[in-house]
Amino acid sequence: VSARRFLPGLIGTLLVAAVIVVLPLFLSDTHEYRFSFVATFFIAVLGLQILTGYAGLISLGHSGFMLVGAYVTTILSVDHGWNDLATIPLAFVIAGVVGFLFGFPALRLRGVYLALATFAIPIALIALTKKYSGFTGGGGGKPLTRVLTGHQAYVTTWPIAGVMFVLAWLLLYGKLGRAFRTIRESEIAAVSSGINLATTKTVAFGISAAFAGVAGSLYAIIIGFVNPDTFAVQLSLLLLIGVVVGGLGSLVGVLAGALFIEYVPLYSPDILSWVENPFGSPLDPNRAGASAAVYGLVLLLILFVAPSGAAGLLKTALKTFTRRAYTRPGTDSAAS
Amino acid sequence: MQVILIYAFAAAVLGGIDSPVGAVIGGLTLGVTINLLGTYAPNLITPDMRLPVALAILLLVLVFRPSGLLGRSIVRRV
């Protein structure tokens, strides 16, 4: 592996990291709080990216794995007196084990069928959470021991997001990541190259769910309260949208996906109020479903403009620059 | 919508996803089983627990008999 190949990515990552470090100086507490949600979505989208973007397995169950992480943190910190940050590694492990176990039946399914089966995970876990209310706090939710300010939430979540990003990068650009990508491209080619299909797929599920568990755990910590209905299937769909907006099979766009999840629903009523309807009167932004419709339109527009997500867009933008940089003057006509 | 979709998918997999007759049999089997469980084990299978039961049946079928009751097993040639 040549260092030169990774240099642009490394520089880009360091630049983004620097921006994230400096950003709290310019943000109000409210916006720091919002931005800490971006960090949790970042981790969850990273996890789903490993599964969907790299291993090519779709999942609508990641909000269920987030629920597992959130409840590991809540129950240990409230009922057993753990430091809430110390529960995060355990949330990683337990959500990972749940995902690994779900990986076995998921081996039988592909495409739409896998989506449907994973669709049931959050629904079933929410029902279980509500049933065993003595243990989990039930449908009414359960408060955590402390409530974070925006700045505390920011400085708690982003370092962990950074660690998870490095972890994902190390996993995906080693032997395991290569196995994931081979499975995505062709299962037959993967098997004939000596990759154990069943093991690799279940491991992909496990790792991906572990990331979602960490995200869920942080989500609970920064809200200071857990409620099972937070982790409904809609959240899984948002995560999948985040992966697609970021660009499948690339770590470059994950941050863009996470920003999309947090900020587009927030600003869609504003977007709606800018757009006048053709018959003169502006649409009522408060009408039920209006902001959801705008959200859908924004998503469609993004998929039209950048079908391969933010990563694809960045690649196209950089292409003109890199082509010039890597072509010697006067050798061929490709530079013109 | 979600709820119906999960039951329907579980029933289709139970009957065999490529078999129309299997869909009918799977649907009846799943519906009757869940309601019988709800009647005879009301403490364990509360109305909230019906969906997890459907999911459990779905997962069991996928692990032990992926082709369902009537479906043909698909063998892929490499």
Largest beta sheet: strand ordering of chain A: 1-2
Report the mean per-residue pLDDT of chain A as an integer. Answer: 85
Report on the biggest sheet of chain A. 2 strands, antiparallel
Task: Identify low-pLDDT runs of chain B.
Answer: none
Using the CA coordinates, give the radius of gyration of chain B. Answer: 13 Å
Q: DSSP strand (E) fraction of chain B?
A: under 5%
The oligomerization state is heterodimer
Task: Give a description of the structure.
The complex is a heterodimer of chains A (336) and B (78). Chain A is mostly helical and 336 residues long. Helices cover 72% and strands 1% of the residues of chain A. In chain A, α2 crosses α11 and α3 (62-79) packs parallel to α5 (112-131). Chain A is globular. Chain A starts with a helix and ends in a 10-residue tail after the last helix. Chain B has 78 residues and is an all-alpha fold. Chain B is elongated, with a radius of gyration of 13 Å. Chains A and B meet through α4, α5 and α9 of A and α1 and α3 of B.
List the keywords:
heterodimer, A: mainly alpha, two-stranded antiparallel sheet, 14 helices, B: 78 residues, mainly alpha, 64% helix
Write the topology of this structure.
The complex is a heterodimer of chains A (336) and B (78).
Chain A: H1 3-22, H2 29-54, H3 62-79, H4 88-106, H5 112-131, H6 133-136, E1 142-143, H7 150-172, H8 175-185, H9 187-192, H10 197-223, E2 225-226, H11 233-246, H12 254-274, H13 290-305, H14 309-326
Antiparallel strand pairs in A: 1-2
Helix pairs in contact in A: 2-7, 2-8, 2-10, 2-11, 2-12, 3-4, 3-5, 3-10, 4-10, 7-10, 8-10, 11-12, 12-13
Chain B: H1 2-15, H2 20-40, H3 50-64
Summarize the structure.
The complex is a heterodimer of chains A (336) and B (78). With 336 residues, chain A is mainly α.
